């Protein structure tokens, strides 16, 4: 085990914390670019409450609305343009993962003269990893992405149809203002997709990390068990603030680096799903619900002991001496049953995706990230035909 | 659940990381006060390796050795005097919890004109919580205290016989350079005391925190299970670097704030033990091994469900519907058996402590910290007679 870690984000977690936005933001700037997605924060009144809090604290507000799901580089360029011309000195993301991801990249793009797409890590040469960005404050309205307390972002290029990612220390939000009340209006389906996203963030490290991280294993299992227990309640009753808070908290933890620390994890399931949602406008968490179990059946053969541990510790499947793979498969089946029970899709057909482009999904995935043998990193690494096979098994 | 959290420490964790000390320190200062405890780091060659690394990176070294176990405020004053007269601009702690705690307070005391004891939180009025300190780098040589990545310190006043604590944001180390190789020479008994310290850091929050923190419960259980599994191996074979690394990592996590986050935990077992080790020069972890199980038997009556959860999840004790307390007690017995199995004491008599001063221990504890009804905070709060009873049960 060998690693470095530093997450400087100041986390403020409380029901009702939105009312502190102005106080929190005024420590970092006087003129905020307030970034939002669709109209839901306006319909719910959250936008107006945010603006009131900011103005009360003497922070003026410039609006950048309309960040789409699977946010586009063109939206980033538009937001950076507004921030620059309006001389904003702080970027506030009020929304879900798309809004937060776009906000981070806007904050870096404001200070970068070139094409912001240069900052992305999709296998190209001469990546310009940003060294500075405007301060960012994240106010998540959805429990899913974990973007609120990490330094990564995923953005799509609508021209090249590439969904790529960025990671840079300057993108850690100064403050993550996490108010579970803001998730009370999220509909059941997107609540469920969020739960799947949370779980998948930790299964990636759990199944694709190095051996010899027993404490991190326990942390990952803790996130999975908590997200399952409380996610089910949040889907069943969206007004259950206790369930919303627990799921929101699991979302923060699942991708702020604490759980994956030292695992040197790869994210093959995310990489494959990104390709799907770059070409089809599907919800990321729904895509993960389809890809993850299919990938698990593939990967379990290479690492049955680890998948058997998952089955035993998460679902209480009895150990089967001499048949670890059988135990592993039972765990995967139970995981699928859980996902189905909260309303997640399990087949590509449920997402409107058929077999026509399987090869292209595989090629696009490998185009974005591959090891020196051209394979998708993970345990085990995947060639093009492996990716096609996994997706075909999920048709 | 409602909390704020920020831990800015840069964690560098690797076997062999000591060789990077110079590189790491040179980013924070050019003249280091190198603080050490007894002579063990000199005998082992670790001191010389540290000095070499620092000099190679252009960092000059001023020595402050002889920080005693249960470090004294007079040592802090001595260290601050050296740092001031030698114009040190960074403080490096190379040692165990005592050395790291003293180093943090030295770093603050250098910048404070008054009596450093003013900065401590033992129920007195007009506490001077420090707002600034020299940068601190921690290099732990023992897996126990967790001081390497948090902003607290415990110091004894040899005149008043008070062992008090300090907590301030400026005391977060800039870097925690954690090299499990440095713990290879720790003898079996102190390895075991360290394991007990690690476990007790998380049981405090687990048993004395608020209700409704299921994810934090899982994290705490993860630390306990990992510390038990790998602690046993480290005690059995001190040269097992894998076991040393896992225990060291558990030590960092157990008190860097991640596990206790949002639990609003009290630390009654630590408070009672501090009184014992202020009056008797016993190892902190050994004192905890005696006090914690005795306290658990007392506290389980007030919170049997939580102790039954501990019994079930840590030791696999079967649930006993209708007899949660019975299940809880079985868990505590198994915990005692574990502590005994790694060589920890379980009775005060093993520490050379008899019944003569029980009343004084209780009064001293309550003098340092008490709620507005004069009780020691915890679940349940303890009056003087409760503390006496708990200690008497451990004679």
Automatic annotation (TrEMBL), chains A, B:
Oxidoreductase as UniProt keyword: yes
Family matches, as SUPFAM superfamilies: Dehydroquinate synthase-like
Domain Alcohol dehydrogenase iron-type/glycerol dehydrogenase GldA as annotated: residue spans: 8-180
Domain Fe-containing alcohol dehydrogenase-like C-terminal as annotated: residue spans: 191-394
Keywords: Oxidoreductase
Gene3D superfamilies the UniProt entry points to: 3.40.50.1970, Dehydroquinate synthase-like - alpha domain (1.20.1090.10)
PROSITE patterns per UniProt: ADH_IRON_1
Keyword Transmembrane belongs to the record: no
GO annotations of cellular component type: cytosol
GO molecular function, one term: butanol dehydrogenase (NAD+) activity
InterPro entries xrefs: ADH_Fe/GldA (IPR001670), ADH_Fe_C (IPR056798), ADH_Fe_CS (IPR018211), BDH-like (IPR044731)
Family affiliation: Belongs to the iron-containing alcohol dehydrogenase family.
Protein name, UniProt field: Iron-containing alcohol dehydrogenase
Naturally occurring in which organism (per UniProt): Oryzomonas japonica
Taxonomic path: Bacteria, Pseudomonadati, Thermodesulfobacteriota, Desulfuromonadia, Geobacterales
